[in-house]
Amino acid sequence: MIVSVATDPDLFKAIGDSTRRIILDELTDKDGQTLFEICGRLTMKHGLASSRQAISQHLAVLEQAGLVHTRRQGRYKFHHIDTSPLRSIVERWPIDREEPNP
After folding, report:
1. Is 54 exposed, middle or buried (0-12, 13-18, 19+ CB in 10 A)?
2. CA dihedral 17, 87, 72, 47 (to 10 degrees)
3. What span, in angstroms and rounded, lies between the C-alpha atoms of 80 and 102?
4. From CA 88, how far away is CA 72, in angstroms rounded?
5. 26 has pLDDT over 60
6. Taking CA 10 as the corner, what is the angle to CA 9 and CA 13, rounded to the nearest 5 degrees?
7. CA nearest 68: which of 23, 16, 37, 30?
8. CA 26 – CA 20 distance, rounded (Å)
9. What is the pLDDT of residues 45-100, one digit of tens each?
10. Are 55 and 39 in contact (CB under 8 A)?
């Protein structure tokens, strides 16, 4: 199977940062959070005191990689996780493969 190499750099960049992985963990725990909620959870649960602007930039990287989608409702912007881009990693390096013969 051929994997789109064009999308891999954005995906690997997105998951290569520990703060972005924590943001994905928090969205997995509670999907559909606002920037304010995400910042609060990062501070309270993980001791990360990043600025709202820094977290917003992390979210933009995750969105560019297709791992986060946003939805506007009134003046609020809700962030939703989408793990489907991670399939390209499993397709590129399959987990279920035959053991090599000795």
Report:
1. middle
2. -30
3. 46
4. 28
5. yes
6. 80
7. 23
8. 10
9. 999 989 999 999 999 999 999 999 999 999 999 999 999 998 888 788 877 766 66
10. yes
Bridge partner residues of 72 (DSSP): 77
2 pLDDT higher than 80: no
At 95, list the tokens: 């987990």
**Residue for token pair 């053991």:** 99
Bridge partner list, 73: 76
Give residue for tokens 């992985």.
Answer: 21
pLDDT(4) > 60: no
60 in Cβ contact with 19 (< 8 Å): no
Q: How confident is the model at residue 1 (pLDDT cuts 50, 70, 90)?
A: very low
